[in-house]
Amino acid sequence: xxxLQELEHLLKRKDDKIRELQRQLDEKEMKIQELRSQLDxxxxxxxxxxxxxxxxxxxxxxxxxxxxPQNFRTIQDLSQKTFRKHSKNNR
Length: 91
Fold this sequence. Notes:
about 90 residues, 3 helices
């Protein structure tokens, strides 16, 4: 284990590093506030009709899937096939 002076020196270096990181954090938070303010200003200037175009389509349509046969041959095959009948009593 190091001497008391070495430990104090390490502690001072850590404190200095913490202060530096805190300063950087404060600068970045100020920059974020400035950018948010500018964004609000620019958004308030844009006409309401332009804003939706910037965000893309308002809705995205879903694509449906049909369970019906898609080609003529499949329709012919199904129309010529006979299916067994089941009475309701046999269920």
